[in-house]
């Protein structure tokens, strides 16, 4: 795994950031990244390892069909079928981040609408939700990959958590943070018993224009 030192360092940095924010929990959440030297292979976090203690030697290398390629005593996360289904379906995706964010999950189980309250919310747009599914099953991989679709980058699984994918680990982590931030603001409004003021249509149009010239 020495050839993957750099990408695993980046992955562990992202994991630390998400862990400190409470988005990845000791036994909840997982990350995969496509191998930089071979797009038909991926590195995934193990199941049952306390996330704070993750080290490069814990990672499992798999082909996109799920065959383990490195010698390891660790098992890939039980949610590996979803990571691999997304990586198979989307050659443009290099990283998949699965988190258990408190506010996004609360929004999903409370049937709160994802509203355009900030520029972040407008950039995210719509937050698709799929119903709870057994995430270890191959079928679950297809359900989540289909929900993300050809051009999407995320989906919330009701009663579970969030999957975000993208061209890089930083992109997927950034989008995860944006979704959770907006959901927190919406949940706080609900807790205060107020209906949030949404951005007016003309200001949303300005943000859409800005998005064309600035990538997120
Ligand atoms: Zn999960």
Automatic annotation (TrEMBL):
Q: Does the keyword Metal-binding apply?
A: yes
**Domain annotation Class II aldolase/adducin N-terminal: ranges:** 9-187
Give any Gene Ontology cellular component: cytosol
Coiled-coil residue windows: none
Keywords in alphabetical order, please: Lyase, Metal-binding
Q: Which SUPFAM superfamilies does the annotation name?
A: AraD/HMP-PK domain-like (SSF53639)
Keyword Metal-binding carried by entry? yes
Q: Which domain of life is it from?
A: Bacteria
Q: What is this protein called?
A: L-fuculose-phosphate aldolase
> Source organism lineage?
Bacteria, Bacillati, Chloroflexota, Anaerolineae, Anaerolineales
**Organism of provenance:** Pelolinea submarina
Query: A single GO BP annotation from the record?
Result: pentose catabolic process
Q: Name one Pfam family in it.
A: Aldolase_II
List the InterPro entries hit by this protein, alphabetically: Aldolase_class_II_sugar_metab (IPR050197), Aldolase_II/adducin_N (IPR001303), Aldolase_II/adducin_N_sf (IPR036409)
One annotated GO molecular function is: aldehyde-lyase activity
């Amino acid at each position: 795994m020495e050839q993957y030192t750099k990408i695993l360092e980046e992955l562990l940095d992202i994991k630390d950031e998400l862990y400190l924010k409470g988005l990845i929990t000791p036994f909840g959440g997982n990350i995969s990244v496509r191998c930089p030297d071979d797009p038909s292979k991926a590195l995934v976090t193990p199941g049952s390892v306390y996330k704070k203690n993750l080290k490069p030697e814990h990672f499992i290398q798999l082909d996109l069909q799920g065959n383990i390629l490195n010698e390891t005593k660790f098992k890939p996360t039980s949610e590996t079928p979803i990571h691999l289904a997304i990586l198979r379906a989307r050659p443009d995706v290099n990283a998949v981040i699965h988190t258990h964010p408190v506010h996004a999950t609360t929004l999903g189980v409370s049937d709160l609408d994802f509203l355009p309250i900030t520029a972040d919310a407008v950039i995210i747009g719509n937050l698709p939700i799929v119903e709870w599914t057994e995430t270890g099953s191959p079928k679950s991989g297809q359900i989540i990959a289909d929900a993300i679709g050809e051009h999407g980058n995320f989906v919330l699984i009701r009663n579970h958590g969030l999957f975000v994918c993208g061209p890089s680990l930083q992109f997927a982590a950034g989008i995860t943070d944006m979704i959770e931030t907006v959901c927190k603001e919406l949940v706080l409004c609900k807790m205060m018993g107020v209906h949030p003021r949404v951005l007016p249509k003309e200001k949303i149009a300005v943000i859409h224009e800005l998005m064309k010239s600035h990538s997120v």
